[in-house]
Amino acid sequence: MKKQNLSRRNFMKAGLGIVAGSSVFAGQSFGEKYNKGVTLNPGMGHGGHQTMPHQTRKASAFKDDEMNPMKFLSAYDYGKVTQLPDGQVQREYDIVAHEKEIEVAPGVKYPAWTYNGFVPGPTIRCTEGDKLKINFLNASHMPHTIHLHGIHPAEMDGVFEIIPTGGRFTYEFTVDPFGLFLYHCHVMPVKKHIEKGLYGTFIVDPKTPRPPAKELVMVMNGFDTDFDGENEFYTVNGYANYFSDNPINIKVGELVRIYLVNMTEFDLLNSFHLHGNMFRLYRTGTDPKQYEYTDTVMLCQGERCIIEFSYKYPGMYMFHAHQSEFAELGWMGFFNVLPEVA
């Protein structure tokens, strides 16, 4: 087969496939699958109407025992917990940087740089006032660091402490304040280290817990699979259209809390739009009393927010980037809202 060199815009026009290295992604477009799909939970829709037609399938890239975008939604690393003599809680984490080929869409392989073998890296979770120890091993073929957003000493910032191949470094600091943060490699060129996959979410819970909710981590990202400096695929949690093919089940009236982080490289903005509903928007999550009420949020790279909502009516509801190009190139999903059990 002759290699093609398709830009992302040509890919959209073609609607059939894209060549990434030696891997070919070919098949029905999302719209074709959508229109020919089967009905999920027929009769569930409000007013007796059927829910949105949609075809489900298990994404081919993952085995049942492996991390995947669905598992990642609620895969929190709380670290190894010990109590120090003064009563402070210490949490210890192990993070390894190494190269790994990953699948980012059906048949599309990408040579990623990873933290702990998945893109995004593990979601670090702790409580305000905890002492953190993050043991970092660089098992890759190039220098890396971990730069965490938030408050910490200068020597823990992951900028000047460049860790060479085979090197180790331990980041230690007391966490303050609570909120939603992120981490990423800060070795130049930073855009390359981020685009290749070295980033993750950092959640600091308040000492007084937030109200109970179904909590989900969503990291918005992109993949430049033909290395031309623009993204061919956009995803949430690393795999294009995963939540279109595998809708997220929630219940009528159930409070949903999304920790939303934008780590998209090569584009100034990414966004989240929720269908059939509105959400409370807490920017950075550092103030539980201040929020906006909206259905769309735009985030620059490194921006993050907590959004909360619940659905009044059962049915299938879309969520996606409100840049149409991003949605058509993989950043789209569904919430399957199930009736409340009497």
Quick overview of this protein structure:
With 342 residues, the chain is mainly beta.
Can you tell me the overall shape?
A: globular
Superfamily at the CATH H level of the domain at 78-205?
Answer: Cupredoxins -  blue copper proteins
Q: How many H/I helical runs?
A: 6
- Spatial arrangement of strands, main beta sheet: 14-13-16-21-18-19
Based on secondary structure, the structural category is mainly beta
Number of strands: 23
**CATH domain class name of the domain at 78-205:** Mainly Beta
Plain-language structure description:
The chain is mainly β. It has a domain at about 80-205: Immunoglobulin-like, CATH 2.60.40. Helices cover about 10% and strands about 40% of the residues. The chain is built from six helices and 23 strands. It has helices spanning about 10-15, 30-35, 70, 190-195, 240-245, 325-330, and strands at about 15-20, 25, 75, 80-85, 90-105, 110-115, 125, 130-140, 145-150, 170-175, 180-185, 200-205, 215-225, 235, 250, 255-260, 270-275, 280-285, 290-295, 295-300, 305-310, 315-320, 330-340. The chain has a six-stranded mixed β-sheet with strand order 14-13-16-21-18-19, with no helix packed on it. Strand 5 (about 90-105) and strand 6 (about 110-115) form a beta hairpin. The protein is globular, with a radius of gyration of 20 Å.
Please outline the helices and strands:
Blueprint: H1 8-14, E1 17-20, E2 23-26, H2 30-36, H3 69-72, E3 76-77, E4 80-83, E5 89-105, E6 108-115, E7 123-127, E8 131-138, E9 147-148, E10 168-174, E11 179-184, H4 190-195, E12 199-205, E13 214-223, E14 233-236, H5 242-245, E15 248-251, E16 256-262, E17 269-274, E18 279-283, E19 292-294, E20 296-300, E21 304-309, E22 315-320, H6 324-328, E23 332-338
Parallel strand pairs: 3-7, 5-8, 7-12, 13-16, 15-23
Antiparallel strand pairs: 1-2, 4-5, 5-6, 8-10, 9-11, 11-12, 13-14, 16-21, 17-20, 17-22, 18-19, 18-21, 22-23
